[in-house]
Design goal:
With 339 residues, this protein is an alpha/beta fold. The protein contains 12 helices and 10 strands. It has 3 domains: 109 residues, no CATH class; 128 residues, 3-Layer(aba) Sandwich (Rossmann fold), CATH 3.40.50; 67 residues, OB fold (Dihydrolipoamide Acetyltransferase, E2P) (Beta Barrel), CATH 2.40.50. A hairpin with a 6-residue loop joins β6 and β7. The longest helix has 27 residues.
Amino acid sequence: MLKKLVVGIILGGICAASGFFIGRQIPQFGDLWWVGWVGAAAGLLLAFLTLGLAKAIKRIPLKIIVGSTLGLLLGLGIAHLASYPFVKFLNLPYLQFPLYIILSAIFGYIGLVLGGKKIGEVTAPAFLEERSKPWRTPLIMLDTSVIIDGRIADIAETGFLEGTFLVPKFILEELQHIADSAEDLRRLRGRRGLDILKRLQQYNRLNMEFVEEDVPRVGVDSKLVSLALKFRAKILTNDFNLHKVAEIQGVEVLNINQLANALRLSVLPGEVLQVQILKEGKSQGQGVGYLDDGTMVVIENARRHIGKEVEVSVTSVLQTAAGRMIFSEIKNGSVIRKV
């Protein structure tokens, strides 16, 4: 913010001073005291318009700017050619300037709009496309929940993720606020999140940048989605509600929980598993155990085998919003050992 203010003051001062001296150089009005100040005001206005235009252009993708510029130049060239016959062949030189202005406005606008829209249909030559690929690193914005979760560091170290991790300033401030909490568990979670960020910083295969820019929104999730839209970045999270809100607004989301569910063991009815029965199930006689990936296994008529490791045969698999449940039954005489 301070940098923008300094640039604005410098640019405004230069334009105002230039306008003042240009106004004083006009032969007819150079002796009038107010002409220089009118020029200074005009220069200052030009500086504000320039800053506003730069801010507006900053949000437009480079490809659209290039396409619109080429379309505008092509439109102005067509306007010049279209006005040429009126002077050369019809001998109407007095129509050249107003006609050129009208045609320039028409063809220039058409070229500007069509160039910006049609540039997306233009593909670069193959050798340029291959050369530019290494520079197209994806931007991935981290939210508070996925940093505190901690699994992102392990996933990053496997090499399955590439690109640049973006951590907004307000996310870092929220982590610090959690780490300073008076509640012990909350404080430990915040400190673990800060440790995970430090761990990601030390990982050489990924870049991590802290985004100082803020957005005028209420709520961390709303700010995160707005910033992701602005930077054209993906959001990495394990928050179900944030996932849905971001998808509605057109932001691509990488969900750690979905990845974990996708990596769970795939089983079919009839397969045999080894499961340690840990507790009683909801229905009478049922026992409950878990696979190494955390998948719940419900075993019929297994209550008497609680605390034992047994072989079970899968009868069905149920996929729920919370995850996957496997229903099974004990194979006869399949007790492996007592735990």
